[in-house]
Amino acid sequence: MKFKITRNGFVESLKTVQNIVPARSSLPVLQNVLLKAEGGRLELTASDIDMTVRTSAECETVEPGASTLPVKMLFSTMSKAPEGVVEVEIDENENATILAGSARFNLSGLPAKEYPALPGLNGAKTLETDCLSLKEMLRKTAFAAAADDTRRPLMGVLMRFRAGKFTMAATDGRRLALVEKEMEIADGEETDMVVPSRAALELERALAAVPAGGEGDDRVVIRAAGNQAAFAFGKTEVFSKLIEEAYPNYEQVIPRDLPNKATIDRALLANALERTSIVSVAASISTKFVFDNGVLNVSATSLDHGSAKDEVPVKYSGERLEVNFNPIYVLDALKSIDDDEVVFELKDGHHPGVLRCSIPYIYVIMPLHIS
Prior knowledge:
The protein is of the alpha+beta class and 371 residues long. It has helices at residues 7-18, 71-80, 131-139, 197-208, 266-276, 327-336, and strands spanning 2-6, 32-38, 41-47, 51-58, 60-63, 65-70, 85-90, 95-100, 103-108, 125-130, 156-162, 165-171, 175-182, 191-196, 219-225, 228-233, 236-241, 260-265, 287-292, 295-302, 306-315, 321-325, 341-346, 353-356, 361-365.
């Protein structure tokens, strides 16, 4: 096979797929990117078996064909190559010669036939939303999924399509992030899927690279069948295995009718938490929140490092209330919210608190019990 492609177009396409390539694999071909040149299009595919990312770029196809090349090495060489047109030729022994300006690279590949086939999605349920909404919903939830848990569903992000609503939720058992948007859902297309958090974060990253305003590029088509899902947008498609165990009933952990409500400047609270949490240690990171009339005092203490405190003006007229939270959990939520102000809803210092903003977003956080 032989094709010519702009260096920038090649690099951007490799950047889209290379993140999911595993550092080690029992299948050597998974260290490679699958390249298919045909017509005026170069298709690039990378996979770790559980997740696959496919994208494409315009090229001049001199000889159509398919092969695989080591993706990390290919990305590194193309990143250092001079701008302009790159010529790639791969012979029948999967040896690649790459010409870029005055530079010449030789890479050894593996046959395309060794690369795993894309997952089948026969009879898939099909839904559609816009890229920006999906990206923002992932940004507001995916960080709350568990990094490691014996309960596999907690290591994923729930996507629920029911009753005219698209709901996304993630929890690690100590916090819950939930966001909703109205969405047209055709009869028979209602479904739930639990997307592994790694795939959700990769999907968010890929969506962030979609240029705004491109014709047809602002929509994402979601297909789900069995234990597989695919998200197609722009020139990119992300495939993922789904977590098949049922997601826990998150509704039962959302507190209702919390009497104490404080309206707080989001940036001021974030800055205060970042300052005071410096003295905390990872093993026992905790910040005390003291809500009083018109002011929120935040403080942290460490036997080894000392103490820090700060105060933030708030709109609060309830009774004096003390509660301890993990400041990182609160900061994660504040960073995902775009409003200038947030509302902290509380019952007391022993029950979960809730952060809300102007959109249908709920962030539940468990308090820390300090002896």
